[in-house]
Amino acid sequence: MKVGILILGRKRPGFDPEWGAEMVARSEAQFAAVSYAVFRPSGAIVDDTTLRAALVECEKAAVDAVVVLQPTMGDGNLSLTLGQCWRRPVVLWATPEKPTGSMISSCSLVGAHVFASTLRQLDLPFELVYGMPGEPKTAAELEAALRLATALPRLQASKVGLIGYHAPGFVDMEADPFELRRQLGVSLRHFGMGEFREAVESCPAEAVAADVHRVLAMNLPLENVTVEELSLASRYYLALREMSATESLDALAVRCWPELPGQLGQWPYLAFVRLMEEGQSIACEGDVDGAVSCLLASLLGLGDVYLSDWLAHDRESVTIWHGGAAPLALCEPVGSEFGPRIARHFNSKKPAVVNANIRADLPVTIFRLWRCDGEYRLAAFEGETTPPRQPLLGSNGLALIPDLDVEEIFEELIHAGMPHHVAVVAGHHARTLGRWARMAGVRNL
User: Fold this and answer.
1) Integer Cα distance of 48 and 4 in angstroms
2) Cis peptide leading into 352, omega within 30 of 0?
3) Residue 236 CB coordination number (10 Å)
4) Ramachandran region of residue 335, left (φ > 0), alpha (ψ -120 to 50) or beta?
5) CA distance 252 to 284
6) What is the mean pLDDT of residues 188-199?
7) What's the whole-model pTM score?
8) CA terminus-to-terminus distance, the chain
9) Would the pLDDT of 328 be above 90?
10) pLDDT, tens digit, for every residue of 369-417?
11) Minimal CA–CA distance to 148: which of 417, 370, 345, 437?
12) How far apart are CA 106 and CA 116, in angstroms?
């Protein structure tokens, strides 16, 4: 992430110039300590001409987002210039008043408020951060706002691949490439199952053999699976990785059944888990919006995503289960009783899935992005995992949802058209996802 810093000044001195200078110095010290790249335009920004010049410099420097700081209140008319010249999300940063003395020192929050309400009237997305430069809370909130500001344009420039179609009968996951592009900016690239099968079968034997050794080096126990059976799992992995790289795919949705286990003899879930370990956003059963949900989590920095069935619930919990493709980071430790092991599918008895329990005592967010009634919608709520009540094969977890009636949540979501897959990430991120939905014009339920 590369960030442009726009510090708006004043043509004539006003308010408390010394306090304003101190806020600039503290903000510069904060930016000097961040992990992302920072760019500061060369000249002072005090009017329309200098703001336009600064934004041109930011474009030439290929910054991903801009932070607009008014250490003392500047010209509100510049919000119109900003909205006209920078069509991507912006982050407005307001600093506090001087805590001593009887005079107003900066009006920084008022200035940022003017910009915010103007940008909203222009229907341009923004985030506002209010806090003292140098404080950890301010730095964390600023970085979170920047992740939001950069996630939206990156998603709008992304490309998702669909191999095959949605799984038989799973009509709730049908993708509309035109609505996906119109509403979220995401492009959809469709591949036939024949194309993928050809890619799998044409992997060089030497590359497959070398990859099997890499699988064995993961030290995942083999549960009724032989080393020889890992060759096809490696072919799946190599073909998916090559397709993703060659076609510049940011996410993948794969019709994983019935053709792959039925015609080729194996499930691709071990390959999915390995790709997830490398940061690939991938969804089973041809769930394109599920893949986009995984990609969104990645862009927001939320970590690994487990795309799960909503298998069962009561008033206080949701059983999060699927056939065996959860990220290792969300599972019980390797080598433990319910840790990851390469196994056979619970139903068809064909390899290669990864059986594991979702780690207990883990704060989680359950969310989903989907399309219904001509619009995209998002739902997100928070909980904590606990040991499953039943030792199910596959990826098996139980999430407790405090202070909410899960039965009521489920009824509301199914009447809003939510598909049967939900995304699960570690940590509590409902507010972050809700802020993204507001920025993207997606209805947050």
Assistant:
1) 17
2) yes
3) 27
4) left
5) 9
6) 97
7) 0.95
8) 30
9) yes
10) 999 999 999 999 999 999 999 999 999 999 999 989 999 999 999 999 9
11) 437
12) 17
Residue of 46, 48, 57 lying closest to 20 (CA atoms): 46
Residues 94-131 pLDDT 10s:
999 999 988 889 999 999 999 999 999 999 999 999 99
List domains and CATH numbers for the chain.
2-156 (3.40.50.10940), 159-444 (3.40.275.10)
pLDDT tens for residues 51-88? 999 999 999 999 999 999 999 999 999 999 999 999 99
Q: What is the DSSP string of 388-423?
A: -SS--SSEEEEEE-TTS-HHHHHHHHHHTT--SEEE
Amino acid 14: pLDDT: 80
**Closest to 106 in 3D by CA, of 18, 11, 1, 217:** 18
Helix, strand or coil for residue 205? helix
Helix (H) or strand (E) holding 53: helix 48-60
- Spell out the residues 6+ positions from residue 210 whose beta carbon is closer than 8 angstroms to its own: none
The first and second tokens of residue 157, run together, are 């420039």
